[in-house]
Amino acid sequence: MSKPAGMSDVEWGMRCDLAAAFRLSVRFGFNEGLGNHFSLMMPGYDDRFLVNARGLLFQEITANNLLVVDFKGNVISGGREVRSVTYHIHAPVHAANPAAKCAIHLHPPHITALAMIEGGRLSMAHHNNLLVNHRVAYDDEATGPATNLEEGYRLARALGDATTLVMANHGVMTVGPTVHDAFHELCVVEKTVGYQLFAASTGLPLRRQPDHLRWTHHKGPWSEVHDGRQFLDAWRRILDREEPDYVS
């Protein structure tokens, strides 16, 4: 099945990008079982977003089986159920930050391990830290699962104007104006934390870089200075050959 009749090319492209990000998260070992969720604001609406349905593995997600959900938690289209925790987190984040068109929540191993360490923070030990550290916020309150909308608004406040939120005892959320912005930034942060944890496992002190080496303090869209679109396009070429059903 390709693009449904009547769907705009813009919406179809967004759906395909989002489906690709789900499939790639499996390949990269970022997701956890049936949990974790990505959302993307619908074009032409300020209160509706695309999101994965409850009960589907990331391997099963396609461009066409994504749900459309409104800010009240109603499933507008998609024919499946939305998890309450998904709505409780994503609706407030989108409502509180209109620039956060895409919101990706995962439990990738390295960032999640950092979130489990008391006072866990990104170091300034790798070149990537010069690009990402100023874009990361930390939520140390660890108030438990999102059982209501207030928890989502609390997370939105913790995120503030950052683009990545390390969620204590939990995982991570990364936001951006597009799927490729949010997903590529998440991949870079996860890789960078992995370097840090591997180096720290030696028991030797990390070598800190001086602040004046920071390449940029850019806090705008990731792809304005990095190759987010090219990164997702390259991986979509792999998916086109190996998992072409993601665009079904």
Describe this structure in words.
It is a single chain. This protein is an alpha+beta fold. It has one domain (9-235): L-fuculose-1-phosphate Aldolase. It has helices at residues 9-28, 84-96, 109-115, 129-132, 149-159, 179-200, 228-242; strands at residues 37-41, 48-51, 67-70, 75-77, 102-106, 136-139, 164-167, 171-176. The protein has an eight-stranded mixed β-sheet with strand order 4-3-2-1-5-8-7-6, with helices on both faces. The mean pLDDT is 95.
Mean pLDDT: 95
Largest sheet: 8 strands, mixed
The computed structural class is alpha+beta
Give the total of beta strands. Answer: 8
Q: What is the CATH C-level name?
A: Alpha Beta
Distance between the termini: 5 Å
Instruction: Using the CA coordinates, give the radius of gyration.
Output: 18 Å
The CATH homologous superfamily is named Class II aldolase/adducin N-terminal domain
Q: Largest beta sheet: what is the strand line-up?
A: 4-3-2-1-5-8-7-6
Strand content: 5-15%
- Low-pLDDT stretches are none
Helical residue percent band: 25-40%
Overall tally of structural domains: 1
Kindly identify the CATH topology.
L-fuculose-1-phosphate Aldolase
SSE string, helices as H and strands as E:
HEEEEHEHHEHEEHH
So, CATH architecture? 3-Layer(aba) Sandwich
Instruction: Give the CA-based shape.
Output: globular
Count up the helices: 7
Question: What does this entry show, briefly?
Answer:
This protein is an alpha+beta fold.
